[in-house]
Amino acid sequence: MPTPSMEDHIEQIYMLIEQKGYARVSDIAESLSVLPSSVTKMVQKLDKDGYLVYERYRGLMLTPKGLKLGKRLVKRHDLLEQFLRLIGVQEDLIYDDVEGIEHHLSWNSIDRIADLIQVMEENPKFIQKLEELKESQQSD
Ligand code: CO
């Protein structure tokens, strides 16, 4: 099982490769707000565990195992963002909240939240009720 920190690195690497076509240690360090030296250490561990191939002067590439996990982690992140947005969480809090909780939910919980999103989207009254509750609290 990958640790939260391993997941964070794979998630960022996957997104960087999707956006730019490559992922550099310096870019990963910047997006995770950590030191490049700690990214290098983590990347070496991820290489050893078969998630990516890292060559100091040639950059890094995700293996099929790393790609599969990266895709799943990004999907999980997006799903949780969608959930918090649907229940009316303040937009500027959403990203950090998801970063904080995403590693600590089982895939079973993730699947149930996905079901809940579906039910909510099929029942606009449910979302409307939540909005009404939120508004009534704000005016207290
Ligand atoms: Co995330």
Concise summary:
This protein is mainly alpha-helical. It contains seven helices and two strands.
Which keywords apply here?
binds cobalt (II) ion, 140 residues, 6% strand, mainly alpha, 2 strands, single chain, 74% helix
Structure explained in plain terms:
The chain is mainly alpha-helical and 140 residues long. 74% of the residues lie in helices and 6% in strands. A two-stranded antiparallel sheet has the order 1-2. Strand 1 (52-55) and strand 2 (59-62) form a beta hairpin. Helix 1 (4-20) packs across helix 3 (36-48). Residues 11, 77, 98-99, 102 line the site of cobalt (II) ion.
Bound molecules: cobalt (II) ion
Portion of residues in helices?
Answer: over 70%
Category from helices, strands and their pairing = mainly alpha
DSSP strand content? 5-15%
Count, helices:
7
| Helix-strand topology string | HHHEEHHHH
Biggest β-sheet: count, sense, barrel?
2 strands, antiparallel
Low-confidence stretches: none
* Global mean pLDDT: 94
Query: What is Rg?
Result: 18 Å
Placed side by side, the strands forming the largest sheet appear as: 1-2
Termini separation:
46 Å
User: Looking at the structure, what is the overall shape?
Assistant: elongated
Strand tally: 2
